[in-house]
Write a structure and sequence with these properties.
The protein is α/β, with parallel strands linked by helices and 128 residues long. The chain contains 4 helices and 6 strands, in the order αβββαβαβαβ. The chain has helices spanning 2-23, 51-61, 74-83, 96-100; strands at 31-37, 42-44, 47-49, 67-71, 88-92, 114-117. α1 (2-23) packs across α2.
Protein backbone atom coordinates (compact mmCIF):
# COMPACT_ATOMS: atom_id res chain seq x y z
CA UNK A 1 0.00 0.00 0.00
CA UNK A 2 2.75 2.44 0.97
CA UNK A 3 4.59 1.68 -2.26
CA UNK A 4 1.43 2.35 -4.26
CA UNK A 5 0.81 5.65 -2.47
CA UNK A 6 4.38 6.70 -3.21
CA UNK A 7 4.44 5.50 -6.81
CA UNK A 8 1.14 6.96 -8.07
CA UNK A 9 2.06 10.66 -7.49
CA UNK A 10 5.44 10.06 -9.08
CA UNK A 11 3.80 8.46 -12.12
CA UNK A 12 1.32 11.33 -12.49
CA UNK A 13 4.09 13.90 -12.24
CA UNK A 14 6.32 11.95 -14.63
CA UNK A 15 3.52 11.58 -17.19
CA UNK A 16 2.70 15.29 -16.94
CA UNK A 17 6.26 16.30 -17.65
CA UNK A 18 6.65 13.72 -20.41
CA UNK A 19 3.66 15.26 -22.19
CA UNK A 20 5.17 18.70 -21.85
CA UNK A 21 8.67 17.64 -22.86
CA UNK A 22 7.47 15.79 -25.95
CA UNK A 23 5.19 18.61 -27.05
CA UNK A 24 7.48 21.60 -26.76
CA UNK A 25 11.09 22.70 -26.65
CA UNK A 26 10.23 25.54 -24.27
CA UNK A 27 10.65 25.48 -20.50
CA UNK A 28 7.46 24.54 -18.71
CA UNK A 29 6.39 26.77 -15.86
CA UNK A 30 3.26 27.69 -13.96
CA UNK A 31 1.33 24.62 -15.09
CA UNK A 32 -2.11 24.57 -13.47
CA UNK A 33 -3.50 21.09 -12.96
CA UNK A 34 -7.02 20.31 -11.75
CA UNK A 35 -7.15 17.07 -9.77
CA UNK A 36 -10.49 15.30 -9.38
CA UNK A 37 -10.64 12.58 -6.74
CA UNK A 38 -13.55 10.27 -7.48
CA UNK A 39 -12.04 7.42 -5.47
CA UNK A 40 -14.21 5.76 -2.84
CA UNK A 41 -12.43 4.29 0.18
CA UNK A 42 -13.06 0.59 0.67
CA UNK A 43 -12.84 -1.98 3.46
CA UNK A 44 -10.82 -5.11 2.67
CA UNK A 45 -9.34 -7.59 5.15
CA UNK A 46 -10.31 -5.45 8.17
CA UNK A 47 -8.43 -2.51 6.68
CA UNK A 48 -9.61 0.77 5.15
CA UNK A 49 -8.07 1.60 1.79
CA UNK A 50 -8.17 5.28 0.79
CA UNK A 51 -5.57 5.52 -1.95
CA UNK A 52 -7.18 8.54 -3.63
CA UNK A 53 -7.31 10.48 -0.36
CA UNK A 54 -3.68 9.67 0.41
CA UNK A 55 -2.65 10.68 -3.10
CA UNK A 56 -4.43 14.04 -2.74
CA UNK A 57 -2.76 14.64 0.63
CA UNK A 58 0.62 13.79 -0.87
CA UNK A 59 0.14 16.18 -3.79
CA UNK A 60 -0.96 18.94 -1.38
CA UNK A 61 2.15 18.39 0.72
CA UNK A 62 4.44 18.40 -2.30
CA UNK A 63 3.35 21.55 -4.12
CA UNK A 64 6.00 22.40 -6.69
CA UNK A 65 7.09 25.74 -8.04
CA UNK A 66 6.20 24.86 -11.64
CA UNK A 67 3.08 22.73 -11.07
CA UNK A 68 0.09 24.17 -9.23
CA UNK A 69 -2.35 21.43 -8.17
CA UNK A 70 -5.99 22.48 -7.77
CA UNK A 71 -8.29 19.98 -6.06
CA UNK A 72 -11.79 20.28 -7.54
CA UNK A 73 -15.03 18.43 -8.19
CA UNK A 74 -15.46 16.92 -11.66
CA UNK A 75 -17.86 19.67 -12.75
CA UNK A 76 -15.65 22.51 -11.51
CA UNK A 77 -12.57 20.94 -13.09
CA UNK A 78 -14.31 20.61 -16.49
CA UNK A 79 -15.44 24.23 -16.34
CA UNK A 80 -11.95 25.44 -15.44
CA UNK A 81 -10.39 23.29 -18.17
CA UNK A 82 -12.83 24.64 -20.76
CA UNK A 83 -12.42 28.29 -19.74
CA UNK A 84 -8.62 28.08 -19.49
CA UNK A 85 -8.23 28.48 -15.73
CA UNK A 86 -6.31 25.16 -15.65
CA UNK A 87 -4.07 23.58 -18.29
CA UNK A 88 -4.95 19.95 -17.67
CA UNK A 89 -7.26 17.79 -15.61
CA UNK A 90 -6.26 14.58 -13.83
CA UNK A 91 -9.10 12.29 -12.73
CA UNK A 92 -8.52 9.67 -10.04
CA UNK A 93 -11.05 6.87 -10.71
CA UNK A 94 -13.72 5.74 -8.25
CA UNK A 95 -12.31 2.20 -8.10
CA UNK A 96 -8.68 3.09 -7.29
CA UNK A 97 -8.78 2.04 -3.62
CA UNK A 98 -10.74 -1.14 -4.31
CA UNK A 99 -8.43 -2.15 -7.14
CA UNK A 100 -5.34 -1.34 -5.07
CA UNK A 101 -6.64 -3.66 -2.37
CA UNK A 102 -6.52 -6.51 -4.90
CA UNK A 103 -2.83 -5.97 -5.73
CA UNK A 104 -1.67 -9.11 -3.92
CA UNK A 105 -4.65 -11.28 -4.87
CA UNK A 106 -4.52 -13.96 -7.59
CA UNK A 107 -6.57 -11.61 -9.84
CA UNK A 108 -5.35 -8.05 -9.30
CA UNK A 109 -7.40 -5.30 -10.92
CA UNK A 110 -6.12 -2.14 -12.58
CA UNK A 111 -7.40 1.42 -12.48
CA UNK A 112 -6.86 4.13 -15.05
CA UNK A 113 -5.97 7.67 -14.05
CA UNK A 114 -7.25 9.94 -16.81
CA UNK A 115 -5.40 13.03 -18.02
CA UNK A 116 -7.17 15.57 -20.20
CA UNK A 117 -5.33 18.51 -21.75
CA UNK A 118 -6.79 21.94 -22.40
CA UNK A 119 -7.70 22.43 -26.06
CA UNK A 120 -5.46 25.44 -26.48
CA UNK A 121 -2.52 23.52 -24.90
CA UNK A 122 -0.22 26.56 -25.02
CA UNK A 123 0.93 26.55 -21.41
CA UNK A 124 4.59 25.86 -22.08
CA UNK A 125 5.81 29.38 -21.49
CA UNK A 126 3.57 31.38 -19.19
CA UNK A 127 4.75 34.40 -17.26
CA UNK A 128 1.65 35.11 -15.19
Amino acid sequence: MLVLVCVVPVLITYETFQLIENSSTYKANNIRVAVVNQDRPTQQNNRTWDVGGKLINRLRDEQQRDVHWKFLSAGAAKRELNNGTVDMMVTIPADLSFNASTALSPSPRMSTIKIKMAKRNNFFVRTS
